[in-house]
Amino acid sequence: MEFYISGSVHAESGFLSIVGRCGNEPVRPGVEFRAILREKPRRYPEGLELPREIEECKGVVVSGRVMAIKPVVRYMLLCDDWQLDPANNRRLTIVGLISNIRSIDDPPFPLYYREMCVFLGLTDGHGQGEGKIVCVHEASGQKVFETNPRTIAFGPDPLEVLGVPFRIRDITFRQAGLYSVQFWYAGELVEERPLRLR
Fold first, then answer.
1. Confidence of residue 156 (pLDDT cuts 50, 70, 90)
2. Alpha-carbon distances of 189 from 7, 101, 135, rounded to whole Å
3. Do 52 and 126 have their domain in common?
4. CB atoms closer than 10 angstroms to residue 153
């Protein structure tokens, strides 16, 4: 079954509203698209066709008529802090990259961690959507924290990298092991990074 998207318009929310059909049927509110496929230009548009090739495939999330295209994560950094350059607001310094945390308390767990930052570099986004950071203990599936959703708005240039910082305070890690720090956008898991507690 193939869906033909004939156009899109910007909705008031900043997302895209799709216009199209499936066969002879229009695309109705509530239809879910798991990917957008864009074909390569055909070499012989008026004659015999070569097998169709896919030029691009993007994951999408759809709610009713509104479509939010998931951004591409260029980088996702776990760190102690980030600092904006006062002389140039397009430059920043990442302080204290984090991949492992070793407890020096006795007993070592539960471990109270005062503050952690997650800095995202996002591109290829359209409109706006809600993003959040979630941390889960891999072995047990126990959720350690989940930030409040925040609106992420992309500009008109999809190639521009948008910096999105999250600051998480007062974290309690109850046991050692491997954790997954995850970035969710429009209800979908987009990217994750491992974090090891010892």
1. confident
2. 27, 24, 12
3. no
4. 11
Residues 143 and 189 in one domain: yes
pLDDT in tens, 86-107: 888 888 999 999 999 999 999 9
Which among 44, 48, 43, 34 has a CA at the least distance from the CA of 3? 34
Are residues 165 and 119 in contact, defined by beta-carbon separation less than 8 angstroms? yes
Place of tokens 């008026």: 46
Residues 84 and 177 in one domain: yes
Domain limits for position 87: 72-197
d(CA 140, CA 169): 22
Shared-domain flag, residues 80 and 34: no
pLDDT in tens, 61-70: 444 434 567 8
User: Percent of the chain, pLDDT > 90?
Assistant: 55
Whether the model clears a pTM of 0.85, i.e. scores above it, the answer is no
Nearest to 117 by CA among 173, 180, 194, 181: 181
Per the CB < 8 A criterion, the answer to whether 133 and 181 are in contact is: yes
Q: What's the pLDDT score for residue 66?
A: 42
